[in-house]
Amino acid sequence: MRKLTALILVLVLSLSLVSALADSSVVVTGTGETFIPADTAVVSLGVTASNADALKAQAEVNENIARIRTALTGAGLKEEDINTGYVNLYASYDYSGYAEKITGYNASSSLAVMVKDISRVGEVIDLAFGAGANMLDGVSFSASDDTAARAESLKAAVAEAKEKAAVLAEAAGLGDLEIESIQETGFFSYENAANRFAAKAADVETDTATIIQAAKICVSATVTVSFRTK
């Protein structure tokens, strides 16, 4: 009787284990990336000036910003593509004595210039510096249409998830798997390389234009996939 009871218990445990394995699931994440050329750039540049009089410092900046706008629109850029980035005005202090003393004022203003023809980015920088800009904050790139790249990245993300799940299932002895559910968990784009450029100083005479090399745009997608044993 005891042997029969023990045998029944072993069978029950074995069936429970088989049932548990049959109901096992594997949940993994997959990431896919697609690289596409940038077709739009935003150039951030501007003017900074110092003067003992705050209003004079600000006036100098305003005059140069106006000249830059005129130079850019005169070269064919649209007014709506030239926007104010920031405007700053702050005092400089001398702390050498017993009390702080204002020694002058620093004014600055920047423009964010959208350039829809990548080949003209260097030209835009040169035009701005020729018109009075003395500050270049950087150039950022983007792609105006990443629809196809998103689709390719999703496909790659699902493929990676399948590969991960197959490895886990084999290691755990679960057998073949089938997809139970898929959830898109994220999309983002970024420049995959630093942008290299060198702006000419306004007082340097040279025929060499500023050279800009656009970065590729990486479109990344992430998915979470749940698999169950067949």
Question: What's the arrangement of secondary structure elements?
Answer:
Elements: H1 2-22, E1 25-37, E2 40-51, H2 54-74, E3 82-94, E4 101-115, H3 121-130, E5 135-142, H4 147-172, E6 177-191, E7 216-229
Antiparallel strand pairs: 1-7, 2-4, 2-5, 3-4, 6-7
Helix pairs in contact: 2-3
In words, what does this structure look like?
- This protein has 230 residues and is an alpha+beta fold.
- The protein has a domain at 40-143: Alpha-Beta Plaits, CATH 3.30.70.2970.
- The protein has helices spanning 2-22, 54-74, 121-130, 147-172, and strands at 25-37, 40-51, 82-94, 101-115, 135-142, 177-191, 216-229.
- The strands form two sheets. A four-stranded antiparallel sheet has the order 3-4-2-5, covered by helices on one side.
Write a compact overview of the structure shown.
The protein has 230 residues and is an alpha+beta fold. Helices cover 34% and strands 39% of the residues. It contains 4 helices and 7 strands.
